[in-house]
Design a protein that fits this description.
19% of the residues lie in helices and 44% in strands. The protein is α+β, with helices and mostly antiparallel strands. The chain folds into two domains: 162 residues, Sandwich (Jelly Rolls); 38 residues, no CATH class. It has a 19-stranded mixed sheet that branches. The chain is elongated, with a radius of gyration of 22 Å. The protein starts with a helix and ends in a 6-residue tail after the last helix.
């Protein structure tokens, strides 16, 4: 009977260690920060810096609060107010709401690619800084500061809409003829490509709404949020 008990304990130990595998810490924070352990819907409110994080944990910042997560890999993830990010496994992070800033260290072939999961897209990263802003309805905006990232569709192809260049005289004529809306629709089709994956370059910003991808401006307010990585 004792032997059977010892065998059961030995079998259970690896599972327990895996469930509590440390991945980093909430290094610094301001305001109210909550951590979900993945097994209970009730969070624990942080009351000290350098709080350990494990796989399956989720970090949430409340109103007027910020947090800096430093992972064992050296990656940094900063949460602006009212943001949520989960850590489903090593090298896989999922921003669920709010504005989350990522600083991902360069990786070699042996360490693999960091995966950032969104509702309709998966972002592959090997070393860069970028910000993701996720709305309540799942729409996301991606702002790339440094490096390159690949964006892959979870299902089907993206409709990647380029910036439409309109001929002013042609637009005026079409308005006079009552064909302006048709003209705009025709132009939009010309500047739309269907792709399963694409690469973003430094300084680029996009919005992802389902399968529709549009170009955005990289504004000063967003650029300033990268300072959260140095808090």
């Amino acid at each position: 009977m004792k032997n059977i008990t010892l065998i059961i304990i030995c079998l259970l130990i690896p599972c327990s260690l895996l469930a509590a595998e440390g991945i980093g810490t909430v290094k610094k924070y301001t305001g109210r920060i909550e951590v979900f352990d993945g097994s209970s819907p009730r969070p624990v409110m942080l009351n000290a810096p350098d709080t350990a994080l494990n796989i399956k944990n989720k970090v949430a910042s409340k109103r007027a609060s910020t947090a800096l997560v430093v992972l064992n890999s050296g990656d940094k993830i900063a949460l602006s107010e009212n943001a949520v990010v989960s850590f489903s496994e090593n090298n896989k992070y999922s921003p669920e709401s709010g504005r989350v800033v990522f600083s991902i260290k360069k990786r070699g072939a042996e360490t693999g690619t960091v995966i950032v999961g969104l509702k309709t897209a998966v972002i592959g990263v090997k070393g860069t800084e970028f910000l993701i802003d996720v709305a309540e309805d799942g729409k996301a905006k991606v702002y790339l500061k440094d490096g390159e990232i690949s964006v892959d569709s979870v299902e089907g192809e993206f409709r990647k809409h380029g910036k439409v260049v309109m001929d002013e005289y042609e637009a005026y004529v079409r308005k006079m003829m009552g064909e302006y809306d048709k003209y705009v629709t025709e132009l939009q089709k010309q500047y739309t490509e269907y792709v399963k994956t694409f690469t973003m370059k430094p300084g680029q910003a996009i919005s992802i709404d389902g399968q529709d991808v549009n170009t955005l401006d990289f504004d000063e307010k967003t650029l300033k949020e990268f300072e959260l990585l140095d808090m």
